[in-house]
Amino acid sequence: MGSLYRVLTLGSALTEAVTAHEVFEAVAEQLLPAFGGQKLAIAVVEERRLRLLDQRGYSKRFLARFEGTPLHARLPVTDALTSGAPLFVESREELLETYPGIMVSPSNSWAFLPLIASNRPVGVCLLGFDDVHRFPDEERGVLTALGGLIAQALERARLYDAEFALARGLQNALLPHRLPTLPGLGVTGRYLPGTRGMDIGGDWYDVIPTGDEVALIVGDVEGHNVAAAAAMGQLRSAVRAFATAGHRPSDVVANTNRLHMDLDPALLASCCYARLHPRSGVVRIVRAGHLPPLLRLPDGHAEILDVPGGPLLGIDAAAHFPESELRLVPGSVLALYTDGLIERRDSDIGSDVDRLRASLARMGGGRLEDLADALLRDACRSADRADDIALLLTECAPPPQTATKPASAHAGSGPSP
Fold it and tell me: Of 155, 296, 299, 384, which is the most exposed, with the fewest CB atoms less than 10 Å away?
């Protein structure tokens, strides 16, 4: 009954482990106390060499000497892995008799468990004991079974890690690394991944100079995977192409929608697109299933811009996207954002948007960079965020102040002529 309990307990913990390091933590938390071990290391196979995944209780300096060991080396870890059979060593004398001259770790007994999944070597698990430990047949059987569970979980987690690395690399390559410097405007953007699942998604922002004007875009593709990141890249490229070609805002969004549908989208997307003329302050805004932008005025008042919108991108190729025009006064701040910035459990979207409006009014007035950081900090109070966040702030610079001469000592309190 105790053996079955150990298998079930570790199996349950491994089902909740997503990444390779989470697999290691689950194994360490369950395996060491269950069998009385003090040391644990897991190495994974990469290009027919062993690479340390993680360890507990060992000296990093000691394990570093074995980093990159080829599978053909004659060592306990490699022999267990290449033979596919666990190796149980109950004493130092036994180890040195089989492997003369081997560098011995500060342990007295070891279990070397090959991690093999789908008939492929995934890695090896090393369990070390400070005191001499005997391995009865039942314990050997349990550890052998657990090695199979660990191998399957580790293989699944490494596939996840590979997909995550691909998605994050794709996403980082597609997001702007720096925003353009624009006369008469201040712009700053922020992106923050979610804290669940793949930690990546399809949120994006962009700033596109277009002659005397500038295009501002924030968008959100549904999903949190490689497909979402790829769709985001396609949409961002489409918006850039149509914006720089000089299309009016409603046509930029309509053309992007048609292109998205021509590519047979499996994912829907939303966006808020604005085209701003910095000198006049005139801005034209188009929404496609997206949250309304916010505007903070120089006096500190912030409001929700009630501009009409069209449907999500990817629903109707003939959809119409209305265009709204307004004039921004110098010193005002336009905020475009995705729902990850505002959504909270047990709260409706209207209240969420109004809460952001209040935060924008309360926190504004200083540097645009500080405002963006403050809004993100406010959104990140919860450690569990299901969605990623994109935020783009644009400030119309106030006109330069005319310098005046200081008052002379005999001219009273007024300025000198």
Answer: 384
* Rounded distance between C-alpha atoms, residue 407 and residue 417, angstroms: 9
Alpha-carbon distance 206 to 272, whole Å?
11
* Burial of 358 from C-beta contacts in 10 A (0-12 / 13-18 / 19+): exposed
In this structure, what token pair is assigned to residue 204? 């994006």
Instruction: Evaluate whether 54 touches 24 at the Cβ level (below 8 Å).
Output: yes
How far is residue 20 from each of residues 23, 33, 193, 316, measured CA to CA in Å? 5, 21, 20, 42
Give the alpha-carbon dihedral of 171, 174, 178, 181, to 10 degrees: -140
On the 0-12 / 13-18 / 19+ scale of CB atoms within 10 A, 342 is: buried
Q: How far apart are CA 73 and CA 67, in angstroms?
A: 12
Report d(CA 295, CA 396) in Å as an integer: 11
Residue 324 has pLDDT above 60, yes or no: yes
pLDDT at 169: 73
Give every CB contact of residue 374 below 8 A, 6+ residues apart in sequence.
359, 363
Is 168's pLDDT higher than 60?
Answer: yes
**Token output for 412:** 């009273």
The per-residue pLDDT for range 243-286, each reduced to its tens digit, is: 999 999 999 999 999 999 988 778 899 999 999 999 999 999 99
Q: What is the mean pLDDT of the chain?
A: 86
Instruction: Give residue-wise pLDDT tens across range 369-404.
Output: 999 999 988 776 655 556 788 999 999 876 554 443
Q: Looking at residue 382, what DSSP letter applies?
A: S
Q: Which two tokens stand for residue 45?
A: 């196979």
Tell me if residue 358 falls in helix, strand or coil: helix
**CA angle, corner 184, sides to 357 and 304, nearest 5?**
15
Collapsing DSSP to helix, strand or coil, 43 comes out as strand
Instruction: Pick the closest to residue 77 from 126, 35, 28, 39 (CA basis).
Output: 126
Q: Which tokens belong to 200?
A: 């990546």
Highest mean pLDDT pick, 201-215, 308-322, 360-374: 308-322
CA dist., res. 184 & res. 179, Å (int): 14
Query: Quick one: pLDDT at residue 378?
Result: 77
Cα–Cα distance, 181 to 187 (Å, whole number):
8
Number of H-type helices and E-type strands within the chain: 10, 17
